[in-house]
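ENTRY TYPE: paired fold submission
RECORD: A
CONTENT: sequence, then structure tokens
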Amino acid sequence: MQKLSESFYKRNVHIVAKELLGKIFVRKISDKILSGKIVEVEAYDGSIDESAHSFIGKTKRNEVMFKGGGLLYVYFTYGMHFCANIVTGNENDGCAVLIRSIEPIEGIDLMAINRFNKTILTQKEKINLTNGPAKICQAFKITKNENGISLLDDVIFILNSPTIKEKDISVAKRIGIKKSVDLPWRYFIKGNPYVSKK
């Protein structure tokens, strides 16, 4: 499998969001590889979306969102959690896709240590390992240090895989926001057990 190219990310946020479903998110930590299939995302477009961090314009916190597609935008929320987003579009667009849920593939033992400080997991813990944006960052050890990292490099990147068919994608309202709540901008793979909220 090949890495997604820069041109993949430099497109409309909704096209990228849907096409990220099924792709393989990879994180290298020294000689270890953590990976998983992206199964749920949310689109954010600062030009019309009041819940997007970029809606208020460029700030020190959100400046990565304005640098153009192919970067990782990591932010801290609720004073305790990190969330990882894929920046899309062109420079100054202010668009990104939040990775909401991942189905773990490789490095599950290390993810389990990062999340639960143990390697033997119950079935419920396996499902809960990466089925939420904060859980993903904890499992994959993504912090503010990874904010702005290029997805074209070799530390964090996304591998191509067959595109999920439109009929297999569910569309819903986003979760945990207080503004622009009615926009149906959450996309997830139908029937996948790792989706955060059905």
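RECORD: B
CONTENT: sequence, then structure tokens
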Amino acid sequence: MQDISLLYGLGIKFVLVPGKHVHVDKLLAEKGREPKYVGRYRITDPDSLKAMVDLAERIRLMIEAKLSPGPSLCGIRRHREKRRLHSNVSVASGNFLAAKERGVVEGIHYEATGEVQKVDVHRIR
């Protein structure tokens, strides 16, 4: 996170998209549930969806908490003032994607699994 904050301070803009499928599978296994995949797609049943939503919220809060203080630049000060080299990283989260349920494909119902239809680039910028 310190590297990300430092890059932001250097003027580099980026979007973080944390992956969570491995963690969702682990949460399901802890509950005695086996994740279901067909090819590269997960069958998102209600248990999987709840695990994804809970995990996404925890990850978002962790990322925001770690980025909000800015980097730890111990010995670096601008003009010998007691300020950070740059301001804190701006963090925004939201629904920047439009997706459509995958539905039934070749007789397999993918339940809540969707496919991205549109990315709202304007709002992300």
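NOTES ON RECORD B: Strands lie at 37-38, 41-42, 97-101, 104-105, 108-109, 114-119. The two ends are 21 Å apart (CA to CA).
STATUS: closed
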